[in-house]
Amino acid sequence: MIAAVAVFVGVALCPTLLQMRDVGLIEYIQRQQDPNVELPVLSSLEQCGNAPFVMPTSGWTGILYGDSIFGTRNHSGLDIFGLEGNGVTPVYAAYDGYLTRRPEWISAIIIRHEDPLAPGRQIWTYYTHMADAQGNSYIIDQIPPGTFELPVKQGTLLGYQGDYNGQTWRSIDTHLHFSIVRGDGNGSFLNETDIANTLDPSPYLGMRLNTICGDRPPTCRPDFLCPGLTTQSNANSSTLP
Prior knowledge:
Layout: E1 8-9, H1 17-22, H2 25-28, E2 41-42, E3 60-63, E4 68-69, E5 72-73, E6 78-81, E7 90-92, E8 97-100, E9 109-114, E10 122-128, E11 150-152, E12 157-160, E13 176-182, E14 198-199, H3 202-205
Antiparallel strand pairs: 1-2, 3-6, 4-5, 6-13, 7-12, 8-9, 8-11, 9-10, 10-13, 13-14
């Protein structure tokens, strides 16, 4: 069963997340890059069984890992579409780690983790489209551009879904793009836009999220790997036909 209990730790309870933001969430926590700053955290989010990650946001998971974009199977993560419009659907950290937001990043953050499924390996979770089409960011003010290695807990509020798509010609609907990125072996991450540099999120979230056998809509299941993909090392992009 999926657990979904919205209880805040260290933050005064308000009727809804949207109201909480509107009445001064940004002012509640000091804006600083102090690693001891207390960020808003949900104690429980949607999580499948013993899967290590929580779902980073809510909505319709419309595009799976490896789905076709412009005719090729190259989608490097999940696209999760909130139905309430821009700046409303919250986005959370999927797992404990260390958050970075590069100075030039308007709508994106990335979090470094010790891989819970492969001890000794570093992975990164990437979250983007958290701004409106004009580039007004929905990332909370406590995570300004230039943030580096800020400790965060699973369930930390990061921002809200938006429809920012950079300087490209293609407009998009409000959603979160979420992916799991391989480390480069030198303490940083590889290029997320290349699916070969990413991992199938299925075992981390406990659902079939790979285009080869994905459930639509996704559902929790113990047999989250596609038949023939027996290990996480085989569940990455190299197996896509």
